[in-house]
Specification:
The protein has four helices and no strands. It is an all-alpha fold.
């Protein structure tokens, strides 16, 4: 949790000209959703899927920060990755709080 707060504060100080509909947001969403779904299904707990997606998003943006010559770190990319991962985790995990639909 402390790492995520530090990450948010780190990127909150940087101007972000990138829009929420940036060209790579769908890629971040797919990776986040896939990571979240796999971890949630493997552990039967949506929280692990959500945490795994956040960890992947954080790792990617820290990598981008270290390689600024070719990459641009973005809080929005992190947010999209995490949101998609949490969403897919809730959908595939069998014991989440909310409506549980079984077919």
């Amino acid at each position: 949790m402390r790492t995520m707060i530090a990450f948010v504060l780190l990127f909150a100080t940087q101007a972000q000209a990138e829009s929420w509909g940036g060209k790579d947001k769908w890629q971040h969403a797919l990776v986040g959703a896939g990571t979240g779904a796999v971890f949630a299904k493997a552990t039967n707990d949506w929280r692990y899927g959500c945490a795994a997606a956040a960890a992947v998003g954080l790792a990617k943006e820290l990598y981008d920060r270290q390689h600024r010559d070719r990459h641009t770190p973005s809080f929005k990319d992190f947010a999209v990755t995490t949101a998609a991962g949490c969403g897919s985790s809730i959908v595939v995990a069998p014991n989440y709080v909310g409506i549980n639909i079984k077919f």
